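note to self — DONT lose this again. spent like an hour looking for the file last time. sequence + predicted structure for the chain T wanted, 102 res
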Amino acid sequence: QLVPEDSPPRTQSKQTTGNSTPIKVKNTGESERMSTVIHQQEQTILRQQETINTLLIEKTHLEDAHSSLLMKYQDLQDKYENLAIEFNKLNNEYNGLSDLFR
């Protein structure tokens, strides 16, 4: 049943055991406003979900880039260690040769 917009809200009693709480029946204008608010909230939720999905994709890209950098770092660290070993070998040879010419 439609209620004219300018009519005051009605209440009806609800039969329950114990304390009964009256139920407010809102007028049509208020229903439309509530419907608009609900629609706006739904749109906000959809935008937030899109933002979350975008951020999750970006997080995945960053994690991939991080893994790639870690692998490159490990590769450089391995090369550095190999160079250090090679340097020590050459240094020992140099010191050995220096001892021969003393």
